[in-house]
Amino acid sequence: MSALRTISAEPPVAPLRMHGGEPVLLPDPSHPWESRVVLNPAAVLVTEPRELTALARSWGLADGQTDRLIAAGGACVLLYRAQGTYDDVRGVAPSSLGLAVLTPELSVVARRGEPVLGPDAPYQNFGVEDPRCTRVGDLYHLYYTGYAGATPDAGRVRICLATTRDFLEWDRHGPIPGDLNDVPNKNAALLPEPVDGQWILLHRPMEGPGAMAIHWARADRPAGPWRTEGLLMESFRYREFRQSWIGAGGPPLALGNGRFLMIYHQGHYTHDGRREYDLATALLDFHQESPVRARIEPLMRPRGLQEQAGQPELGVDNVLFTCANYVFDGELVIPYAGADSRIFGASIPVEELLTALLRKSMKRTGRVDR
């Protein structure tokens, strides 16, 4: 375990809050399923014109909307978590996943009025939560948290998988096979390409050895079965907090030769019990005995009322949380939630971020890890 650090250290590079720091997606009071909060979206970038046109047709977009996406250079497909009306029977405000289509720079073009995945199976009847989406061939793999409130699995939190080609029709695979779901588990992100013929999935067990830290698992195919490899990295310790933990953000960016650029989240409790969630970044190399080559903590902390004050009935304040990132025009775009209530966007030049991480790696190891 590392020595105590300070959370107030300035990062060597910092993301830019897009759209002047204003939300890019808000709850819709006219839709009971998303009337309270929208948060923690998965996102994929579609840029190939023929695929984009076919998807736009399946989504029912008007010609002008399709033309706008093509002119913008593609579509950000946002699969966001939403909560709305409180369910008196289940005793919760269940989470569903909605679909919104944005430009790559996060301007909304279309938004579907009904959820695309809902809490309608025993293993997720309390919530479909915090998705991450990775494309493998022509199939999109969505790993998400299924929250069960039905017997015999009441209270279980497991990593689940659904796959799709158009984001409307889904094959639901349920809780993923293997040993990852032997304990409550979440924050699963599939790396976008295999390493030495094996797929890698990041995850965060909530119990057991190394709990509340980023673990990794291997499988021969993206659907599993998965074999956990144990702890990948845990949080640094901070003098401002009595407890800190970390979990994966969006699927890491592939850099080639087993190397990946990862955005992840840090959670903390202050000494008086208040909470803070920040964003951080790391450089991974799975051809090294110790894959974590460098990290920047924190990269981004909550700022301003809309990131620091959440929906009053839920009471989740002072939180940044991401399940997504993609590269567009040299920028790493990071859709993220503020205070578990609304969705924002940030961007940072990929080369600047990678250079900062490589400098840290060189300082730590005495060699360049290019």
Could you explain how this protein is built, in words?
The protein is mainly beta and 370 residues long. Helix content is 11%, strand content 44%. The chain contains 4 helices and 24 strands. The strands form 6 sheets. Strands 2, 21, 22, 23 and 24 form a 5-stranded antiparallel β-sheet that branches. A hairpin with a 7-residue loop joins strand 13 and strand 14. The radius of gyration is 19 Å and the shape is globular.
The helix content is 10-25%
Number of DSSP helical runs: 4
N-to-C order of helices and strands: EEEHHEEEEEEEEEEEEEEEEEHEEEEH
Question: Sheet bearing the most strands, described?
Answer: 5 strands, antiparallel
Could you list the spans in which at least 5 consecutive residues all have pLDDT below 50? none
Assembly context of the chains: single chain
Short descriptors:
mainly beta; 370 residues; globular; five-stranded antiparallel β-sheet
In a nutshell, what does this entry contain?
The protein has 370 residues and is mainly β. The two termini are 27 Å apart.
Topology:
Blueprint: E1 4-5, E2 16-17, E3 37-46, H1 49-59, H2 63-72, E4 75-83, E5 95-102, E6 108-111, E7 127-136, E8 139-147, E9 157-164, E10 170-175, E11 185-190, E12 199-205, E13 214-219, E14 227-233, E15 237-238, E16 241-248, E17 253-256, E18 259-270, E19 275-285, E20 292-300, H3 305-308, E21 320-321, E22 326-328, E23 331-338, E24 342-349, H4 350-365
Parallel strand pairs: 1-15
Antiparallel strand pairs: 2-24, 3-4, 4-5, 5-6, 7-8, 8-9, 9-10, 11-12, 12-13, 13-14, 16-18, 17-18, 18-19, 19-20, 21-23, 22-23, 23-24
Helix pairs in contact: 1-2
